[in-house]
Amino acid sequence: MVYDIVLDPNPILHQRAAEVDPAGITGREMQKFFKDMVETMYVKDGVGLAAVQIGVSKQVCTIVKTHNALNRHEDLVLVNPRWEKLDRHEEWDEEGCLSVPGMFGKIKRYTKIKVQALDKQGQPLQFVAENFFAKIVQHECDHLQGHLYVEKAKDLHRAEQAKPDSKYPRE
What we know:
The protein is α+β, with helices and mostly antiparallel strands. The chain is about 20% helix and about 30% strand. The protein has a 5-stranded antiparallel beta sheet with strand order 1-2-3-6-7. The protein has a 3-stranded antiparallel beta sheet with strand order 4-5-8.
């Protein structure tokens, strides 16, 4: 099932999502939800997707396999994710978002973070994410905390103002 994307200013995008009970992660309903989130992410042409972006207040996000530095053969599902910076280095980069269509802006993100979450089987997962992978994780975790990138982005502009050869991933 492909979900519709919730657009700003919908209030769900500005509220902290609810923690997921680990006991329910392996259930059939939750497993179908994970599968539907991944399908939606691909159909909507995103590199990541947070559950709040489809109107579900749960601490769940997905990242496409091509940007999953842990396992490039599988899409990544993070349940109740948390991250912390591993160094002070930050980089400015252009971001977009499925929930703010047509808008792009520059945002500063940490380039190396440590992530803790549960995987789609409810098992503890801990890893280091770097560069673009780290930026996707931070973007999606921001969603789960009720924040959109446009709240801290600079040089916001519409897609038609972008260079024709630019490729802005949307998360």
